[in-house]
Amino acid sequence: MATEAAHDAAAGAAGHAAAPATGMPQLDFSTWGNQIFWLLVTLGVIYFVLSRVALPRIGAVLAERSGTITNDLAAAEELKLKAVAAEKAYNEALAKARSEAQAIIAETRAAINAQLAEATAKADAEISAKAAESEARIAEIRAGALQSVAEMARDTTDALVSALGGRADGAGVEAAVAARMKG
Amino acid sequence: MAAEAESGIQIHPMDQFIVRPFFGGTEVHWYTITNVTVWMALAICCVVALMVLGTRRRAIVPSRTQSVAELAYGFVYKMVEDVTGHDGVKYFPYIMTLFMFILFSNFLGLIPKSFTTTSHMAVTVVLAMAVFITVTAIGFMKHGKHFLELFWVSSAPLALRPVLAVIEVISYLVRPVSHSIRLVGNVMAGHAVIKVFAGFAAVALISPLSVVAITAMYAMEVLVAFIQAYVFTILTCVYLRDALHPHH
């Protein structure tokens, strides 16, 4: 604390708001005691508030936040692994389903092909049977036609011979016709 | 000051630093509630508002105020940890107290018509002496006589060591002076300069220039308010590191 004399001088200078400062108020040691006292009080209060309330609280919040972030990152990592596993399972199922589908398709195709081949073979057999039958008939008809021609030729020869006044010799006509037919 | 009265310019740059009783009267006793008391109380209110009320929700996703409080916490904590090392962390609350007090005093002092508590040597000298005494005590308590090795530069040639020791001791003893004068000088000078420019604003011809100059000075003072709080704090950390690890 300052001396009384200095104190009075300062009080006179600082007393009214209008009074200008004489020299530097910083060097007016009469106010030092006051300032130092209130400074120590202030620092004490701030220190108390900070060390008892604010700093532990903020430290806890920061620690909690970093813990939360770490946990969240771990959880995210876990979920990512799960997602990868799920994707793998999905892909496997997809591949399995696809191969099954392929198998079914191949099976069906084979069955259809077999049916088709069977039907084709049956149809071929029918067709060839019909063709053979037709050929037989054609041969028959042809044979029938040749015979008819021979008969006609014999009859005609008979008629011609009779008309020409001859007597038809059955065996001779037959032989002649046969000879001509061959020729 | 006599010349001012004639020209009509009223320049009293130091008036803003006068300590006067807040509720009238002329006597400034040690217990008197003065403008110093009021502005220090406001600094406490600001610290409480930011660091306690701002963080009362303890949110994982912080509000704006809580982010600022966390920023201040992280800023000083990292400074202490980086400069002093791991064993300096237990002094973090003390350093945080210094930082918050100086920071808010400086910024409250930027309010027009306010009183800047850190512009007074009584304040900064006490702060610096507190740091000096505490740090020296910690040094001797931790290392005993070995703390004096701080002044004995073992990496220098033997012949030079006594000379260096004298220089080191002097520079160590000058620390509280530079530590306190740096803060008070920066804050006081800036405020006084603003007041001088403001005085010139009374003359119409130069008042635009004066206003521009005040604005520029004010911007610089905002910077200085933070930087000086930072400088005071980091120097405290440096001194603390010397006490904790006196070996070069």
From TrEMBL, chain A:
Transmembrane segments: 36-55
GO molecular function, one term: proton-transporting ATPase activity, rotational mechanism
Pfam families: ATP-synt_B
Subcellular location: Cell membrane; Endomembrane system
Membrane topology label: Single-pass membrane protein
Keyword annotations: ATP synthesis, Cell membrane, CF(0), Hydrogen ion transport, Ion transport, Membrane, Transmembrane, Transmembrane helix, Transport
InterPro entries named among the record's database cross-references: ATP_synth_b/b'su_bac/chlpt, ATP_synthase_B_chain
Cellular component aspect of the GO annotation: endomembrane system; plasma membrane; proton-transporting ATP synthase complex
Function recorded in the entry: Component of the F(0) channel, it forms part of the peripheral stalk, linking F(1) to F(0). The b'-subunit is a diverged and duplicated form of b found in plants and photosynthetic bacteria.
Subunit structure: F-type ATPases have 2 components, F(1) - the catalytic core - and F(0) - the membrane proton channel. F(1) has five subunits: alpha(3), beta(3), gamma(1), delta(1), epsilon(1). F(0) has three main subunits: a(1), b(2) and c(10-14). The alpha and beta chains form an alternating ring which encloses part of the gamma chain. F(1) is attached to F(0) by a central stalk formed by the gamma and epsilon chains, while a peripheral stalk is formed by the delta and b chains.
Family: Belongs to the ATPase B chain family.
Protein name as catalogued: ATP synthase subunit b
Organism ancestry: Bacteria, Pseudomonadati, Pseudomonadota, Alphaproteobacteria, Rhodobacterales
Automatic annotation (TrEMBL), chain B:
UniProt-listed Pfam families: ATP-synt_A
SUPFAM superfamilies assigned: F1F0 ATP synthase subunit A
Primary residence: membrane
Compartments where located: Cell membrane; Membrane
MF-aspect GO terms: proton-transporting ATP synthase activity, rotational mechanism
Membrane topology term: Multi-pass membrane protein
Cellular compartments per GO CC: plasma membrane; proton-transporting ATP synthase complex
Residues annotated as transmembrane: 30-54, 91-111, 117-138, 150-174, 194-215, 222-241
Keywords: ATP synthesis, Cell membrane, CF(0), Hydrogen ion transport, Ion transport, Membrane, Transmembrane, Transmembrane helix, Transport
PROSITE patterns: ATPASE_A (PS00449)
Record keyword Transmembrane present: yes
Family designation: Belongs to the ATPase A chain family.
PANTHER family reported for this sequence: ATP SYNTHASE SUBUNIT A
Protein role: Key component of the proton channel; it plays a direct role in the translocation of protons across the membrane.
HAMAP family, sorted: ATP_synth_a_bact
Name of the protein described by the UniProt record: ATP synthase subunit a
High-level lineage: Bacteria, Pseudomonadati, Pseudomonadota, Alphaproteobacteria, Rhodobacterales
